Amino acid sequence: MRDTQAMITGMAPVLDDILYHFCVANEALLPHALASFREDEGLSLILSDEAARVHGLSSDLPMRRITLTVHSALDGVGLTAAVATALAREGIACNMVAGYHHDHAFVPAEDAAKAMRILQDLAGEERA
Predict the structure, then answer these.
(1) Which of 31, 96, 117, 119, by CA, is between 20 and 30 Å from 15?
(2) For the whole prediction, is pTM greater than 0.70?
(3) Is residue 48 within 8 Å of residue 93, measured between CB atoms?
(4) What is the tens place of the pLDDT at every residue in 6-47?
């Protein structure tokens, strides 16, 4: 789907129960990662709280994942901006990760319930 309004109204956010951490680690932990990204400074991994703790990695900012269940096109325009802007207006940090089928917003765990309400409201506003 590429239409901005249709992506927003169809995003139907779902909150994951798992706590996650963004960590810098070596390739041996790749099998434990939900996602990875290679940067000049090192390998960034998104690990579950359990995996981060077992391997002694930083767990100072627990995050929750909100999956936007709409099938957004990789070249779709506006969904990420709408989500990040709505959360930013309420002072909620948001790290967006795009998969092939869905976009995922990682927010501080303490803000997850509020972020869900904001995104549900955003989808509802676009429907009206």
Answers:
(1) 31
(2) yes
(3) no
(4) 899 999 999 999 999 999 999 999 999 999 999 999 999 999
Distance CA 89, CA 103 (A): 20
Read off the tokens for 99.
């998969």
Exposure of 110 by Cβ count < 10 A (0-12 exposed, 13-18 middle, 19+ buried)?
Answer: exposed
- What single letter denotes the amino acid at residue 13? P
Helix, strand, or coil here: 100? coil
**Cα 66 to Cα 112: distance, rounded to the nearest angstrom:** 8
For residue 121, list its beta bridge partners.
Answer: none
φ/ψ (deg, to 5) at 126: -70, -25
Q: Extract the tokens encoding 25.
A: 């680690």
What CA–CA distance (Å, rounded) separates 50 from 59? 10
What is the distance, to the nearest Å, from the Cα of residue 102 to the centroid of all Cα atoms in its chain? 10
